[in-house]
Design a protein that fits this description.
alpha/beta, Arc Repressor Mutant, subunit A, Rossmann fold, 2 domains, two-stranded antiparallel ribbon, 8 helices, binds adenosine-5'-triphosphate, CoA-bd, cytoplasm
């Protein structure tokens, strides 16, 4: 299973967590194999795409047998670093930020929000969902100590860009941006943008104009 992960296309890599979660459920229920059509039904990805995705990491399903669940899971664990705990941090402990701190990816065992930052006097110094909230002024120093590279950004949109600039200066390499602001960052920093209201509007639009 010594594969060159750089060769996995990005679109395939994005689907891996989806496959992983479903396969984990299968393993927990004692199933040892799964067909691409069963997977397809469960994760809502067509089976041709699944077969192509799996071929990138050498998992060739056998006709009438399907895929070996344990093999796939051990591959995914390696690829997704499921065996390593990745600590992330959160900036902006408002309503959304607080919800994330309380949730704290409790279903996943490999990602955990370790600390949070805000500027509001009524938030700094508190602990929410077991996560300490520090003043943003302490960001650089604390991040350097803990070698965190990823930030979940849940501040008001007008504050997002200046904060992102500071995060980058502090060495952050990945930002999960929940604000509507489009962030400009250097090319070695990755931003994934999740605008919940846009996603919701788009779902409503598709339901209306492209009924299934
Ligand atoms: P709340 O009602 O708790 O303020 P909200 O989600 O409606 O929640 P927002 O105005 O979106 O509030 O702000 C989100 C959080 O970002 C708040 O906790 C706020 O204190 C914090 N915040 C605002 N400006 C900054 C900043 N420059 N740096 C860090 N955090 C900030």
């Amino acid at each position: 299973m010594d594969l060159d992960q750089a060769k996995i296309p990005q679109a395939t890599a994005k689907r891996l967590p989806l496959y992983y979660r479903f396969l984990e459920g299968l393993q927990a229920s004692g199933k040892h194999r799964v067909s691409s059509s069963e997977l397809s039904e469960a994760v809502k990805v067509d089976s041709a795409t699944i077969r192509r995705d799996f071929s990138y990491f050498g998992a060739l399903g056998k006709k009438g047998y399907g895929y070996n669940v344990n093999y796939l899971l051990s591959f995914f664990r390696k690829t997704l670093d499921q065996d390593e705990l990745t600590k992330v941090t959160l900036v902006g402990v408002g309503n959304l930020g607080t919800a994330f701190l309380n949730y704290n990816f409790s279903k996943s065992n490999n990602t955990k929000i370790d600390m949070a930052f805000d500027v509001a006097a009524d938030k700094v110094g508190k602990e929410i969902g077991g996560v300490p909230v520090y003043h943003l002024d302490e960001f650089k120093e604390r991040v350097a100590e803990s070698s965190v590279e990823v930030v979940i950004l849940t501040v008001p949109s007008q504050a997002a860009q200046p904060i992102a600039d500071d995060l980058v200066k502090a060495g952050i390499k990945g930002i999960l941006n929940f604000t509507p602001a489009r962030l400009s960052v250097p090319s070695d920093v990755r931003v994934h943008h999740i605008d919940l209201s846009v996603e919701l509007q788009s779902l409503i639009y598709f339901l209306k104009h492209y009924p299934l």
